[in-house]
Design a protein that fits this description.
280 residues; alpha/beta; Rossmann fold; 2 domains; six-stranded parallel β-sheet; 10 helices; binds nicotinamide-adenine-dinucleotide
């Protein structure tokens, strides 16, 4: 029987700590707003944006919503970002992805001032993370580090295998695990013998975006399994990249979907916002 790593509980703990910190900063006259920009009306994006606004309200940070029509041009969006970069009260700028096809996500990410890049996607933030300098950390991987630490999972010296090499999960995850002194292996869609490599993992982090792909045959007895994937199964129920019922009995600890990694991403976004307010 694995220990269930409760992301709902841990994210709540973090949000409560941040609420206290934000109140203390307010007493010192340090406040600030998170600007949340959404282009178009993708229903999933609307849910994420609403959750981010609610989290700001809970912690006591002002949020400014910019809901732009789908036809917004790249130049218009870049002009708005430029304007927000110049506003001292705005401490964080978040552009909800994905963007409509006619707008370059890369150009938008680069336009956000690294001082306000609370998603941690700007190349300067990624570079700082790579060489261990201060900067905003990518939220989902930073949340996974918190999940592991706050669940008492030892990372140093452990073999961590990551499935996935995306810029928002796999790659930053590998860098953060390395920073915690794990021995890291990154696998991806071109990896041969995936199963054999995964079976060597003390900590297996699965971010492949393939519903219920990872079964018991990929997992070493006693491994810690972190499931980043989020999908709806045939019955519209949420599920991850891992076959939970099959893997749970052999893992020593595992994150469920929902209620594992998901809630941590917003908690770490809030952490970055409070950090930005603190740094002024
Ligand atoms: P992505 O599609 O950008 O990357 C998937 C990665 O998995 C790629 O690097 C690919 O090489 C690898 N991969 C795909 N098939 C594979 C295979 N058969 N064998 C080995 N590797 C394979 O996805 P992403 O943005 O990194 O997200 C991954 C998953 O995590 C998705 O389900 C996404 O919805 C979810 N996600 C969740 C959160 C959260 O907050 N919980 C945040 C971000 C992403």
């Amino acid at each position: 029987m694995a220990k269930i790593i409760d992301g709902k509980m841990i994210s709540q703990q973090i949000k409560d700590e941040l609420k206290e910190k934000a109140a203390k900063l307010k007493e010192q006259g340090k406040t600030g707003a998170l600007a949340v920009i959404q282009v178009g009306e993708d229903p999933a994006s609307s849910v994420y944006v609403r959750n981010k606004k609610n989290a700001c309200a809970y912690i006591g940070i002002e949020s400014l919503a910019y809901e732009l029509p789908n036809e917004t041009t790249e130049a218009e969006l870049l002009a708005l970002i430029d304007e927000l970069n110049g506003k001292s009260q705005v401490k964080g700028i978040l552009v909800q992805l994905p963007l409509p096809g006619h707008i370059s996500e890369d150009a938008v990410i680069r336009a956000i001032s690294p001082k306000k890049d609370v998603d941690g996607f700007h190349p300067q933030s990624v570079g700082a993370m790579t060489i261990g300098e201060p900067g905003f950390l990518s939220c989902t991987p930073a949340g996974i580090i918190q999940l592991l630490k706050r669940s008492g999972v030892e990372i140093a010296g452990k073999h961590c295998v990551i499935i996935g090499r995306s810029n928002i999960v796999g790659k930053p995850m590998a860098l953060l695990m390395l920073r915690e002194n794990a021995t890291v292996t990154i696998t991806h869609s071109k990896t041969s013998n995936l199963q054999e490599i995964c079976r060597q993992a003390d900590i297996l982090i699965v971010a492949m975006g393939r519903p219920q792909f990872i079964g018991a045959e990929y997992v070493k007895e006693g491994a810690v399994v972190i499931d980043v994937g989020i999908h709806r199964d045939a019955n519209k129920k949420l599920c991850g990249d891992v076959k939970y019922t099959e893997v749970e009995p052999i893992a020593s600890a595992i994150t469920p979907v929902p209620g594992g990694v998901g809630p941590m991403t917003i908690a770490m976004l809030m952490n970055n916002c409070v950090q930005s307010i603190e740094e002024g």
